[in-house]
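Shipment paperwork, digital attachment
Item: protein structure file
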Amino acid sequence: MDTETRAAAPSVTSASPSTVAAAPRPRWRLRGNPLAGLGSLVWLVIVVVPIYTMISSSLMRQDEALDGDPLAFPTHPTLDNYNTVLHSGFFTLLSNTAIVAVATVAIVVVLSVPVAYVAVRTRNRWSSLAFRVFLLGVAIPAQAVIVPLYLLIGKMGLYDTLPAIILPTAAFAMPVAVLVLSGTMRDVSEELYEAMALDGATPLRMLVQLAVPLSKAGISTVAIFSALQAWNGFLFPLILTQSEEKHVLTLGLFNFMSQFGVNIPAVLAAVVLSVVPIFAVYLVARRALINGLMGVGGK
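Attachment content:
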């Protein structure tokens, strides 16, 4: 009896390694996706080539930019084009644009956070209807209301001022901001609200101490998108301002094309200088932007 048991044991032990060795491995992990790689490469070329051409051409002389290869690096790089742009009122354009962007972000964040909170926490038919009507602003293009907006700005005495740019820009950024923040605040656990309510917290305290800290990623996303919208805005500055002292970068670039004529390197130098600040902001805040878009945040 003992002999049979001892003889059977090695057979079981010897079968285990072969069984483990024969187990198939998940082969899908070893497979690549050539179409995805090719698509990524094509997208990289589409993004990088225009940026490289813009920077290299801004370092060229006028004759070299017109007669040379746009993809070739300049034979004699020069910063004269940047010097020309910097002495053509560029810093005034930059400061006006920064003021518009910062003010727009402040207005959008301060107003959209409580609106989104009320839309999420107030559960009745009227709040739901008001939220849907508010989001209709996403579907209304600025071009459709530019004439009544022009008349309204004129009657308010704001024509040819920076608030004439700031207020409409913030108004058109609000619907998207509320949409993003309401989605972020819905992810906050209901148990946390109930716990604070049991402690006697008011709605304002729950907003400040609970909803806002857990919605930092969404707030950062809203701030970045609002800043980009204000930085790249062209229609409102074109229609609602007139004097050069109130021009922003987008309108200044448009005027540079007329001022410098066919001086392509100078125009591209102005474009490079206008992109640098907002690109720096993106590099600093890219993690918060990605987290906000993915809806993960820091919760």
